Structures are given as C-alpha cells and as structure tokens.
Amino acid sequence: MTAELVRGQNHPLDRTRVEIRVAAGGPVVAGVTLGDEQGRLSGVEAVAHPGAPRRTGIEVPRQAAAEHRIAVDLDALSAAVHRVSVLLALPTGIGGLTAFGAAAAPSVTVTGLDGTGIARYTITGLGAESAVVAVELYRRQGTWKVRAVGQGYADGLPAMLRDQGLPQAAELAAEIEEAVGRGQARAVPAPAPLAAGRSERPGAGPAAPPAQDRPSPAPATAADGPAPSGAGAGAGSAAGPGPGAGAGAKAAAGAKAGDLPPAPADGGPIDYRHPRRRSTPASAAPAPSATRPAGTPPSAAGPTAPDGSPLPVAGDAAGWSMDERLYNQVWGMFEDLARSVAAYRSAADFAESRLEQELDRALADPRHRLGTAGEDARATARDKHATLVTQARAALDRDLAQLMAESEVVEPALPPAFARWDNPVWQGYHVPAERPMALRLGDLHLPEVLDLRIPMLVRLPLERGLWIDSGPDSYAHGGPGPERDIGRRELPGALTDGPPDESELRRLAMESAVAIAARLLAIHPAGDFAVQVIDPGGAAAPALAPLVESGALPAFPLPGAQGVTAVLEELTRRVELVQMAVRHRAADALPADLDTAEQLLIVHDFPHGFDDRALTRLRYLADEGPAVGVHLMLVADRAQSREYGPVLDPLWRSLLRITPVPDAHLADPWVGHAWTYEPPLAPKGSQVVRQVLGRLAEARKAS
User: Fold this and answer.
1) Are 601 and 591 spatial neighbours (Cβ–Cβ below 8 Å)?
2) Cα dihedral across residues 357, 360, 365, 367: positive or negative
3) What is the pLDDT of residue 310?
4) Whose CA is closest to 511, among 527, 497, 526, 491?
C-alpha cells in the first residue's frame, strides 16, 4: 500500500532500485542532486539535469514535461552520497507556468521497478515559487528512507542550487535552461481532465514518446525495459505529445459498461470531430481563400459528408507547421485508440465478473439448481452479460470507425519521415533542406482492430540508441496466433509457414537495421548524416549492399577485431573532440578531418568480436554519443552476451528494443496496453530503398 506523506514525514525504503514518478499541472524540469551528509554538493557533477541526464545510479528526463520518471539505483551511488534530492523547476520560454501556485499541486511518487507504490507526496501550499525540492532519499545507519521536503524557492533554480552549497549555481542553472530550450519543442503539456462523453482538449505541443524509454516517438513504452524520458518518459518515455482521450472512452481504464456513451438514438452519422483535439490555432491556420471567407472558422468551412457531417482532415491538430500538426494528430490517434480499447476491455471484464457473480448466486440457492427456475436465472444472467458486451463493442466500433476514417486521410498525407515505404510520397522524393522533427520506426496495433496501424514516431535527434533483437525469443513474445499470422503475411520477406528460424530472424533483423538507416539518411540533408557499420563476422554483407552500392557506406565493414577497433576508436575520438568543443565553445578549433555529420553506428552480431576494451568504448558511445550526434544501433541476441553477466545490463536498458518480426512487447504511456510492433521494412520485391538512396547519392555528388 502506498504511504501518503505530509511535509517533513519520512518512510523507509524496502528496496534500493526505485523509480520516482512526477506529475504536475504543466511542463516542469526534473533533476536530481547528490549531496553529502549535510546535503552539500561536491560540484556540478553531483547534479543530474536535462543537459547531463545520466549520473552514476541516476537517470533523469531530457526535457520539460508534465509527467516524468526518474530512475534511481541507490546501490550504485558513491559512499559519499547520503542525500538524493529531487528538484522540480518551471522552465522559461515555453509559455507555460511562471509559479507553481498557478496550477494543480505537483505530486511525486516513489515506486518499485514493477510500478508498486511505496510513498507519495503531494506538494501543497506553493505560491510564487518557481522551483522546489520535492522529496529526498537519504541514508541513515546503512538504510535508505524517503522524506517529503516541499521546500520552494521564489527566485527559481539558481537560488535552489545555491542553497545546496553549489558555487556555480547561476552558471549551472543557465546551462539547464539552455538544454531545456534545445528540447523546447518536446515539452509535454499536462493532460486535460476528462469528462463523461466528449469534451474539448487543449491543443498539445509536441513531445517525446515511449517510450520504452514509454514509450519516448517512442510513442510506446517497452514492457521489458525502463520507460524513456518524457514519455510518461514517460517508453517513455517517450517518450510524448499531448494526445487526447478516445471517443467515448473514459480517462480511467476501469470504466464500466454503464459509463460508455450511448449510440446515437436515431442511428445518425458518426461524429468525426476528433475528441478533445483543439482546432488549428489562428496563427497556424491557412490564410483566407476564395473557398473560405475571412473570419470563417476552419471547422465550419472544412469538407463535409453528403449529410453535412464534418469529415476527418489531415493535420487537424495544434502545431506551427504541417509536420508538427500531423505528428500531434498521430499521437492523438494513438491515445484515442488506447483509451477506447481500455474502456472496452474494462466493460467486458465487468460483464464477465457480473455474470460469474449472478451464476454463483443462482447456484447457491438449492431451489434454483434444478428445474425451470434455475435455467431461467442462468439464462437471464447470460442475457445481461451479452447485452453489456454488445453495448461495449458498439461503443468501441463507433470509435474505431472514426479512427479508421481519420487514418485513411492522415496516412497518405504524411511526409517521407513519417510515411511507410509503400507510401507514394517516396516516388516523388527529393533530398530535404532541413532535418525533420520525427522518424517513423514502424507500426503499432492492437488485437481488437488488426487493420488500424498507428505509426510509431520518435523525435529527432534520437535521444537513445536502438536494439533490434535478433534472438529466437523475440518471436515468442508476440500476441495471439491469428493476429501474428496476419502480421506475418503482411511483413515483407517474412516466413508464412511458421515461426522464423534463427538464421531467418538474423536476416530480417539486419534488413530492418538497413531500412531504418536508409530512412535516416534520406530524411536528412545531403552530407548531414552518415552510417558506419561493425560486422566482425562479415555476415551482414547481403543486407548492406544497398548502402554500399549507393555510396552511403563507403565500403563493406572490415571484418574481425581490427574492424571493431578502428570504428570504435574513430567514433570515440569524434565524441571526445566535439564534447570539448561544445564545452569550451570552440567549434572552430575542431580538426579539419573530423566528420561533424551525425553518425549512426550499426553493430551486427554483438558481442562477437568485442573484447573488454571494445565493450567499454561501446558503452561510452551509448552514454555520451547521442548528445553530440553519435547514435547506436545494436543488431544482437542478448542471450549471446550472458557470459558478461550484469556488466552489460546498463547498456541493454539504455536502448529501445524493437524486433524484426511482429511482436507484442511495447506499452503505451496511458493505460499500458501491450501493442504489437511491426518493423519498417519495404514491400517484398520493391526497389524503393535503392531508388531513394540513389537520389541521395546524386544530391551528394551535386553538392
């Protein structure tokens, strides 16, 4: 049972690996300080914040959001650390709150890694404060406890850091604000409260997904790993944006059948206005035209069905560009589907529970066990059950019809970065002039509606590496048989007569890696993104052929330990030099031979060919690389690295796991459904990837 704390109260911790969940009334910045017995900080390295989100034993989100998850491993902390303080601050320049007293009181919950609540503290009594020490975990006589602090600071983050004895408080506060400003577009507004039926939702700004991280554009959270920053990470994390509740679905997943909105009494048309999704703001709306007189609301002049009802419109969400509006609209559809299915499942479970109770009552009366009275009681109970399930399914079907109609107009309108490889937009592909805001990593769907695929979008630049699981267990995690059969038939190049064997999984995993790499190359300006590959065994050559033939990869990777060492040394040098240049604001001092383009390192068959030194460098790149444009993608079977024991666990946890075959292993950040993920492979026999890479090669030569 979760202990409810008041200011000053403490509570013992029965474990040393915990998660701290923050919920606020608007975007806040979350950080952690590591203090000594007096709570004093040794220096800036004792602060985990969006600009430096990882410290030993601590990981905090990288952006401002209304919800955060902070990972804490107390056993990993230095013996000199006696206090772990959780800091919350209001960001500047996002147009949100300027004082905590202007919104609902923030709350902090300490949970186990399985989500079991340990202690919760709601920080009441705040007024003009813009920064607050929420809670602290402190060491006392060899054990750890959590204390509710709630100490606010009207002068903001600098005053709070200064109060903890940090001489460089002002400089660090400026660095944190700068880091938050770089991720300003990812700030997540607080979800609006839901009322019965349909209500209007404030427009959502973009944010990170799942993800796994929860999903952080990971629009999903990995069920087998920690949640990504900002996605609830919120997986995440994910990282995420401000999606709305599904049509006819309650905010709480526990809604019962009686809570579902009734169908139109007259059997009228479906209302295609997206539930709780704000219309495009005037500042972002298109200019008046001959077909829409000035002053006419866009919704009033939008397309309508023959019966006059509004039709779904691509880009009908808040945002300052069409890509941002489409991104937010996709996230809105994602949440709508999650909550609608949650309401249906809850209603079905309620109906089943009610049926069991009524049958038990009928059988408990000896007079009803035999004869017509017993049969009538059982028949009545089954009729009630069928009615409740039918009503719940009817409500779900209405929501699905709306979402299917919206998907049919949104999918064709997606830009290349968001589109599937079979989208006609790739036929007119041209090299972009600037980097997009997000990347499509695949599709997500639920068993209740196999035909509705939600694009899995993750924000760019990538904040965490990717792990494409090529192990045999990656297929075994999937959903029910019929669903998997359908997914397998639609997956290009996959087997249709049973689970793929190990060699087939390895082939599909590398093809998925190349498809993602090709997409990353294609959506960046020519020369702004590069790919490097480590393939000690040389088995990835067939999959890498499109990259080599187009010149995106200068040559096939050098096999053996020599190839591993050469690539890791080059990328480690790049990360260290760029870090120093950024730290000292000396970008002009970088060596002329240093490639400053963003880099994607694909490691095939990890850990084959790696010694202890190479492992250390790889972990360094996974931790430090994303901040300076070096991203990691492992194509690996985790079982093959068991000989290293727990040494590599932090590496696996830092990566977003995806699979080369349809697999139900990702969870959304709202109700936690297990979503089936499908990889972003091109249609079987299609040459679209080679064509796109060829056009990119021509653009590189021309530049």
Assistant:
1) no
2) positive
3) 67
4) 491
pLDDT at res. 142: 83
Contacts with 394 (C-beta within 8 Å, 6 or more apart), sequence order: 263
Residue 248 has pLDDT above 70, yes or no: no
Residue with token string 């399930």: 389
pLDDT, position 643: 82
The Cα–Cα gap between 107 and 68 comes to: 11
Give the Å distances, CA to CA, from 424 to 336, 414, 441, 627: 27, 10, 18, 34
Q: Report how far residue 622's alpha carbon sits from residue 683's, in angstroms, rounded to the nearest whole number.
A: 31
Relative to beta strand 131-140, strand 598-606 is unpaired
Residue type, 385: H
Cα(471)–Cα(425) distance, integer angstroms: 34
Distance of alpha carbon 357 from the chain centroid: 40
Q: Is the dihedral of CA 172, 173, 176, 178 positive or negative?
A: negative
Asked if pLDDT for residue 535 goes beyond 90, the answer is: yes
Measured between alpha carbons, how far is 289 from 293 in angstroms, rounded to an integer? Answer: 6
**Global confidence as pTM:** 0.60
Angle among Cα 331, 332, 335 to the nearest 5 degrees reads 85
H, E, C per residue of 341-403: HHHHHHHHHHHHHHHHHHHHHHHHCHHHCCHHHHHHHHHHHHHHHHHHHHHHHHHHHHHHHHH
- What would the pLDDT profile of 426-438 be if each residue is shown by its tens digit? 998 999 999 899 9
Is the Cβ–Cβ distance between 207 and 188 less than 8 Å? yes
Mean pLDDT of the chain: 79
Three-state SS string over 248-288 comes to CCCCCCCCCHHHCCCCCCCCCCCCCCCCCCCCCCCCCCCCC
- How many percent of the chain have pLDDT more than 90? 46
Alpha carbons 688 and 690: distance in angstroms, whole number: 6
From the list 396, 456, 389, 394, the residue with the least C-alpha distance to 246 is 396
Facing residues of 664 across strands? 676
Please write the tens of the pLDDT for every residue from 161-208. Answer: 999 989 899 999 999 988 887 765 444 444 443 333 333 333 333 333
Contact status, residue 395 vs residue 342, Cβ threshold 8 Å: no
Query: What backbone phi and psi angles, to 5 degrees, belong to 652?
Result: -60, -40
All residues at 6 or more sequence positions from 439 whose CB lies less than 8 Å from its CB, including other chains: 217, 417, 457, 458, 460, 462, 519, 520, 523
Smallest CA-to-CA distance from 115 within 19, 229, 4, 1 is with: 19
Q: Which residues contact 676 (CB under 8 A, 6 or more apart)?
A: 444, 445, 446, 447, 478, 479, 483, 484, 487, 662, 663, 664
